[in-house]
């Protein structure tokens, strides 16, 4: 990868994650069998959180080192505000879409299945709780987590600037303590956040730690033969266990003693086996996916790359499309052919949104902003993070303009 070029691996992995999330958000969908969650313990969520943290670390690290902490904080909190506005608009559109479908077709399943029944009964109370990020319909849990993590990012960057190893250790301790004592943020009217920020912050902080310039410290070990053997062993074992959940013939291969250790595999508080499985996959990706892989620049992968570069509008549109696809499968036909049609069609529409967002960015602007700290013009990966390697950052002296 030449100097100044984008690292398309970040775009590719984020794009693949976008497609997987969309497919997984469609209930009873045959194409779910082609997503990561059926072949191991973790899924696209872990990659999303890690890459988001890595992008912030690589994008804002040079500015923080240059003494621009206040400016970096302002930029990050502005980004968090943009994410918050996007989440609220998505919430309003999503609940309106489900409410209309439930009333139009006299099918209460929609409002119950997507957790909007109480919103229809008490809209004033539920809107207030939604503004506080305490009430979230199904499939709207990711953005609140990201908002909280981005708000906390300046503190993380400050810690990494002074004591990088200690900051990572403290993050790990918070992860362990939150799991032990059950710490989480409350939801409304009951329960807790689906993605526990006290637990998921560790993956985010680890991503920032790598992107901040610490990746080279672990790169030789990540690519070493012993670690690769260990990583592949973990992935294969996780594959067999995950397949045993759906294929009875494999169930006997998993000793009962192993099951007692593994279960429950909690996604809310990022169960250790999910974290270990993700780290094993990450090590394999770093080894097998070089930054200069010619396939990453092929036209065949262009749709995935675009969806990864324009992640915010693609994700929001994907949430809306997922319910539309579910409605079609319920009201029109639930055949496998229709499942494939709505899934592939939805991915095509998401790619169209990514293309429109890319085209919009080519339109002229009125203001030129000095490139002292990263400036966010949308939802894409920061340009400097796009140039970065997943665990192999090459820190520039100054930061170009863009975002995570």
UniProtKB/TrEMBL annotation:
Keywords: Membrane, Transmembrane, Transmembrane helix. It comes from the Bacteria. Residues 382-404 are annotated as: Disordered. The keyword Cell division does not apply. The keyword Transmembrane helix applies. The chain crosses the membrane at residues 83-102, 143-161, 168-186, 198-217, 229-251, 271-290, 311-330, 336-357. This is Possible OpgC protein, require for succinylation of osmoregulated periplasmic glucans.
């Amino acid at each position: 990868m030449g100097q100044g070029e984008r690292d398309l691996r970040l775009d590719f992995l984020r794009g693949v994650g976008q497609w997987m999330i969309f497919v997984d958000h469609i209930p009873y969908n045959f194409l779910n069998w082609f997503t990561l969650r059926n072949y191991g313990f973790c899924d696209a969520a872990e990659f999303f959180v890690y890459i988001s943290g890595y992008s912030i670390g690589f994008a804002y690290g040079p500015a923080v080192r240059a003494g621009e902490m206040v400016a970096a904080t302002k930029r990050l909190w502005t980004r968090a505000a943009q994410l918050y506005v996007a989440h609220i608009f998505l919430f309003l559109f999503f609940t309106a879409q489900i409410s209309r479908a439930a009333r139009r077709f006299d099918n209460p399943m929609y409002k119950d299945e997507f957790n909007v029944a109480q919103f229809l009964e008490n809209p004033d109370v539920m809107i207030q709780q939604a503004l506080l990020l305490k009430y979230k319909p199904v499939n709207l849990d990711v953005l609140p987590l990201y908002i909280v993590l981005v708000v906390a990012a300046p503190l993380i960057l400050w810690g990494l600037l002074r004591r990088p190893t200690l900051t990572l250790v403290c993050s790990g301790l918070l992860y362990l303590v939150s799991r032990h004592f059950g710490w989480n943020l409350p939801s409304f009217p009951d329960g807790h956040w689906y993605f526990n920020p006290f637990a998921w912050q560790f993956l985010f902080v680890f991503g920032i730690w790598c992107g901040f310039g610490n990746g080279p410290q672990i790169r030789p070990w990540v690519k070493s033969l012993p670690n690769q053997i260990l990583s592949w062993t973990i992935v294969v074992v996780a594959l067999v266990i995950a397949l045993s959940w759906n294929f009875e013939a494999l169930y006997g291969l998993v000793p009962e003693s192993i099951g007692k250790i593994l279960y429950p595999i909690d996604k809310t508080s990022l169960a250790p086996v999910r974290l270990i499985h993700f780290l094993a996959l990450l090590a394999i990706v770093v080894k097998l996916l070089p930054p200069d892989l010619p396939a990453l620049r092929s036209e065949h992968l262009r749709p995935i790359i675009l969806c990864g570069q324009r992640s915010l509008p693609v994700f929001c549109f994907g949430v809306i499309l997922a319910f539309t696809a579910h409605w079609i499968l319920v009201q029109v036909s639930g055949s496998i052919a229709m499942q494939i049609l709505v899934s592939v069609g939805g991915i095509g529409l998401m790619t169209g949104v990514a293309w429109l967002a890319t085209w919009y960015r080519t339109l002229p602007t009125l203001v030129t902003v000095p490139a002292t700290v990263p400036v966010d013009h949308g939802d894409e990966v920061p340009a400097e993070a796009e140039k970065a390697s997943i665990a192999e950052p090459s820190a520039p002296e100054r930061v170009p303009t863009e975002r995570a």
